[in-house]
Write a structure and sequence with these properties.
The chain is 0% helix and 34% strand. It has a domain of 41 residues.
Length: 65
């Protein structure tokens, strides 16, 4: 398990080379409504970014490349 905090741009770098496989990402956004957002992702070879967009009463994510 690895714990990361976001930088001034709101980004956290998990590592340059992650092995392909399933990962669980848990976010604790500074939101009065969402206390915890958990994603399970399946990564192949390559570079990915996983943005989490949090609004007062909704959140969304997508797999970027």
């Amino acid at each position: 398990m690895t714990e990361m905090r976001t930088d001034a741009d709101g980004r956290a770098t998990l590592g340059e080379q992650l092995d392909p496989g399933a990962y669980r990402l848990v976010f604790h956004p500074p939101s009065p409504f969402f206390r915890r957002v958990e994603l399970e992702v399946e990564l192949d070879d390559g570079h990915y970014h996983v943005p989490l967009l949090v609004a007062p009463y909704s959140c969304a994510t997508y797999r970027g490349s």
